[in-house]
Amino acid sequence: MRSMRGYATMADPRRFDLVNEEPLIQIEGVSKVYDGAGVPVQALRGIDIEIHEGEFVAIMGPSGSGKSTLLHILGLLDADYEGRYLLNGCQTSNLDADELAPVRNREVGFVFQMFQLLPSLSILENAALPALYSRDRSEEECLNAARQKLEQMGLAERLHHRPSQLSIGQRQRAAIARALVNEPSLLLADEPTGALDSKTVQEILGIFSDLYEQGKTVVLVTHDHEVAKAARRVIHVRDGQTSDGRVW
Predict the structure, then answer these.
(1) In what side-by-side order are the strands of the sheet with 218-222?
(2) Rounded-to-integer distance, Cα 234 and Cα 60, Å
(3) pTM for the whole thing?
(4) pLDDT digits (tens, 9 = 90+) for 39-86
(5) DSSP label at 22?
(6) Is residue 122 a part of any domain in this protein?
(7) Is 234 a member of any domain?
(8) Cα–Cα distances in angstroms (integers) from residue 199 to residues 49, 57, 169, in the given order
């Protein structure tokens, strides 16, 4: 991990200075136009974003604001845009789909609203999948890495259960373990509390806060102001443009 001098809110006594640090995420002049039934739709309008290693950032916006498009670009799921995107120092804007896949597998851990766990596999097997896809460790090493992450999520007694045998909160914790198994540079969470009850929402947000305290970079995409309050900075997206603020 690079040396990090982050910054924090008034509720967080740590004080950092990011002026001279290279961003983990650097987006410059990114625009995206969709073909909407023959009519061009401008989803993003020349946005610029910097997110540094060790930050906990929420990206907020209503439906149609462009935040989902931005999410896909941040997660290296969409390479069809104008502008420049560097992730962890890697120029991704000129990579094709085959070149992006290994970078995405190595650098980004995804947490989804509906968990995206394969129902036929145990949660241990689910959590090991990103490591297995990377093909740089043995199957045993991948399973051991997955076991460790699941144990950290409090699921040591559920390793061989299938998703349908878990509570909703346990499924999301298993999904977070899967996202972390490759030790990615970026944890990208897409509406991760949208399917949860209020008590479980606080539990999952507590996990993200703990990961932030451990030095992980967390970017959470949400439309919920209460969820965004868990982050240390909020980037608002509206009409394909951004404004950058803090949660105090």
Answers:
(1) 108-112, 186-190, 218-222, 56-60, 233-238, 241-246
(2) 7
(3) 0.87
(4) 899 999 999 999 999 999 999 988 888 998 999 999 999 999 999 999
(5) P
(6) yes
(7) yes
(8) 32, 22, 9
Distance CA 73, CA 67 (A): 10
Asked whether residue 157 is domain-assigned, the answer is yes
CATH number at residue 214: 3.40.50.300
| Separation of alpha carbons 74 and 219, rounded Å | 9
Q: Give pLDDT tens digits for 120-131.
A: 999 999 999 999
DSSP H or E run through 233? strand 233-238
Q: How far apart are CA 74 and CA 186, in angstroms?
A: 9
Structure tokens, 231: 């982050």
- The first and second tokens of residue 46, run together, are 């020349």
CA 126, CA 143: separation in Å to the nearest integer?
10
What is the torsional sign of CA 214, 220, 226, 231? positive
- Structural domain tally of the chain? 1
Tokens of 54: 């060790």
Between CA 71 and CA 67 the distance in angstroms is 6
The CA dihedral of 10, 14, 15, 16, to the nearest 10 degrees, is -130
The pLDDT tens digits for 143-166 are 999 999 999 999 999 999 999 999
Amino acid present at 43: A
What residue numbers bound the domain in which 63 lies?
A: 54-70+98-246
Residue 37 resides in a domain: no
